[in-house]
Design a protein that fits this description.
homodimer, alpha+beta, Arc Repressor Mutant, subunit A, Umud Fragment, subunit A, 2 domains, 9-stranded mixed β-sheet, two-stranded antiparallel sheet, 11 strands, 19% helix, DNA-binding
Amino acid sequence: MELTEKQREILRYIEEFAGENGAPPTIREIGSRFSLSSTGSVRDHLKALAAKRYIECIPGKSRGIKLLRKTRLSSIPVAGRIVAGAPGLATENIDGEIEVGERLAGRGSFALRVKGDSMAGAGIQEGDYVIVHQQSTCEQGEIVIAMTGDEATVKRFRRKGKKIILEPANPAYSPIETDGDVRIIGKVVGLIRYYK
Amino acid sequence: MELTEKQREILRYIEEFAGENGAPPTIREIGSRFSLSSTGSVRDHLKALAAKRYIECIPGKSRGIKLLRKTRLSSIPVAGRIVAGAPGLATENIDGEIEVGERLAGRGSFALRVKGDSMAGAGIQEGDYVIVHQQSTCEQGEIVIAMTGDEATVKRFRRKGKKIILEPANPAYSPIETDGDVRIIGKVVGLIRYYK
DNA sequence: TTGACAACCACACATTTGTGCGGTAATATT
DNA sequence: AATATTACCGCACAAATGTGTGGTTGTCAA
């Protein structure tokens, strides 16, 4: 069943409130947010939301609103596959979401699925998800996502004088040397692998 | 500051309650869980937890307990060491917690910090956390946690006739062959790595 | 001994909060 | 015209819940 405009607003407020405060709002807190002077009005909306199975109201309990369709807070977008070995195109496509712990879910972080085995020596395998914090600079030896031309790669970052070297971790591949025209997308801060 | 045994129990209960119900418990709910007939007793503990910055108490609000160090319910224990003969995890051998997505947080799962590089060829490095689902059987070729003698190891599982072979993924190590007296603790279902 | 702390009890009190019941008004559907 | 739906108000009441004060007991360190 569809929600009305007002019901959607109220549901959204409950979700936000619960996320920020760790507990859902009371009837009167909802009322004051929407300038509803009567608790009955709020209850009408809660009843409607409960009838449509968006929330559940636990009788007699304070803040007894249970969100039934919970929006996950610590999920980050998975960008399209990146190419760790052979060249390829980086897509801006968001390819779903992946759940991570808060330790990895910092601002502007996203996940990328690894393709190829050019970093196998560093324990990064095809199909792994690398978690990336977006930043444009990085330190010697860190594993980064970099754009060279229009291809994105996972490589270890090294600077030698003016040159920037993107170093694979697999003897079958050669380092990419550039004069500095490399755009760093971000730093790899974590890795998640799922075994079947 | 350190928590006392009782305070830790209460904090844990609040976290669990909040995870299950979407809101923290009331003072009296905590009291009834721990058979404390006086609300004052509970408040003593809450004051202690607040003084030690584990929670925050919002005055005048029902369920006004705010968890400051939030551990979402999708956190699983990190096993410190696995002891021979002990079924499952002994609580005294838990070495903290790690946050994982729901996909990895199934029942009876725990994490284990990898020591050594015997599985480096499979992209499992020292310091990685492997996520383990407890089970006593497994399939050909799966990566498992097994007890040989009184030590737990991460190895690839193979069966050859009557023999069970625990196979490392590093040519510097030799496979462990046994006649079947291996106890399988669980199967590796995921891997999490943190880069500094 | 004194003092600090953890852990508990008892109870009264005020406030917060959910509940029940009865209204009004606008709009659309039958 | 009758009925249903959405969206409101107002108020009294009871239950849930946080607050305040004053106790007891035991342990541990100065």
